[in-house]
């Protein structure tokens, strides 16, 4: 019901309309998809006709569906000829497995950026995350008997999370696990990486003024053709997200870039009155508790997704120093209690700091 309510809210906010001052031959159109990446995806674009918008909307939708299958950890699509992460987890420890270039390049990106992310965003954490996933699902199905995973099981699984055991053969486009008990889970990066691919497709199209919102991943194309200099993007109030309201804690104005948020309100379950979310600290093997959310602002949505997870898992001083060490990257941190901190670059586009969209 939460997803349906969110979709209806998005649909209401995104009704196609024409704004004063927009290009005479361009109208604003919108679409909502609810059948991929376990989230609501919305697309707004300025196009010369409904036909043009529908063409690109369908292309976006189909691309998301395909990449959802490629990146899926929990389902097989071999009957469709698709090798997913699930298939890799079943077969790649016995032999190198050929994969689609999109999946191969995602894994290459995650491995090559591992050190950049201080080891916090690790797609080889699948053995640990699968335990949390099973306990979370059981807790959601039967809240009265929800339990935390045993620490000894988590620690045993953590012994099989060395990303160096992910062997990538670029010439043959194959993936091999040198550790037979290693598992992959690309959930920390998948939506952002997919959204960047879709965004690049639209940027090279005849509908390059757009905004895509895929859960906590927002990709902005060229400015809207209605006289504004950028798009307005709201940063969700974590409590509002949990309780089903639409409250926001900040609005950012920008174009041609990405805003990606990692937060404790996206996937969680409750044990003995305390919520346990899905962002697991690789050191403690428990959900991180430094922030309610971290939003990353940079051009590439895949990189933003990768960095939002890493920054969320670090204590504030370390997280801020990490972000400020990166060129072209800014962030907003939302703490328990509602306090907000942001980098200087984020402040320049934040409504609360005087930024406007005119």
Describe this structure in words.
- The protein is an alpha+beta fold and 358 residues long.
- It is 34% helix and 22% strand.
- It has an 8-stranded antiparallel sheet with strand order 1-2-6-7-10-13-14-15, sandwiched between helices.
- A hairpin with a 2-residue loop joins strand 11 and strand 12.
- The longest helix is centred in the first third of the chain and has 22 residues, at 50-71.
- It starts with a helix and ends in an 11-residue tail after the last helix.
- Mean pLDDT is 92; it is low at 1-22.
In short:
This protein has 358 residues and is of the alpha+beta class. It has eleven helices and 15 strands.
* Main β-sheet, spatial strand arrangement: 1-2-6-7-10-13-14-15
Q: Enumerate the spans where pLDDT stays under 50 for 5 or more consecutive residues.
A: 1-22
Residue share in helices? 25-40%
Radius of gyration: 20 Å
Residue share in β-strands = 15-25%
Based on secondary structure, the structural category is alpha+beta
Cα-to-Cα separation, first versus last residue? 37 Å
> What overall form do the CA principal axes indicate?
globular
Number of strands: 15
Order of helices and strands: HEEHHEHHHEEHEEEHEEEEEHHEEH
**Helix count from the secondary structure assignment:** 11
């Amino acid at each position: 019901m939460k997803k349906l309510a969110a979709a209806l809210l998005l649909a209401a906010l995104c009704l196609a309309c024409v704004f004063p001052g927009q290009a005479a031959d361009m109208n604003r159109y919108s679409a909502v998809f609810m059948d991929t990446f376990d989230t609501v995806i919305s697309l707004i674009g300025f196009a010369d006709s409904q036909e043009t918008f529908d063409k690109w909307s369908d292309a976006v939708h189909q691309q998301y569906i395909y990449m959802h299958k490629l990146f899926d950890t929990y389902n097989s699509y071999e009957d469709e000829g698709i090798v997913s992460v699930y298939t890799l987890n079943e077969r790649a420890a016995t032999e190198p497995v050929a994969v689609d270039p999109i999946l191969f390049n995602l894994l290459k990106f995650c491995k090559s950026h591992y050190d950049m992310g201080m080891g916090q965003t690790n797609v080889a954490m699948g053995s640990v995350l699968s335990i949390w996933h099973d306990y979370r699902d059981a807790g959601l199905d039967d809240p009265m008997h929800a339990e935390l995973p045993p620490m000894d099981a988590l620690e045993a699984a953590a012994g099989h999370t060395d990303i160096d055991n992910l062997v990538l053969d670029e010439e043959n486009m194959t993936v091999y696990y040198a550790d037979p008990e290693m598992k992959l889970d690309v959930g920390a990066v998948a939506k952002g990486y997919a959204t960047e691919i879709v965004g690049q497709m639209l940027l090279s199209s005849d509908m390059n003024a757009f905004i895509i919102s895929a859960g906590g991943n927002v990709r902005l194309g060229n400015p809207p053709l209605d006289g504004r200099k950028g798009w307005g993007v709201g940063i969700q109030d974590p409590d509002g997200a949990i309780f089903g309201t639409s409250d926001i804690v900040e609005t950012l104005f920008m174009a041609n870039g990405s805003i990606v948020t990692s937060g404790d309100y996206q996937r969680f379950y409750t044990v003995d009155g305390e919520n346990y979310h899905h962002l697991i600290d690789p050191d403690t093997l428990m959900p991180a508790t430094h922030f309610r959310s971290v939003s990353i602002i940079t051009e590439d949505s895949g990189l933003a997704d990768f960095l939002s997870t890493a920054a969320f898992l670090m204590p504030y001083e370390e997280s801020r120093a990490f972000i400020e060490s990166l060129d072209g990257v800014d962030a907003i941190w939302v703490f328990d209690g509602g306090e907000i901190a942001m980098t200087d670059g984020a402040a320049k586009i934040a409504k609360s700091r005087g930024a406007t969209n005119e």
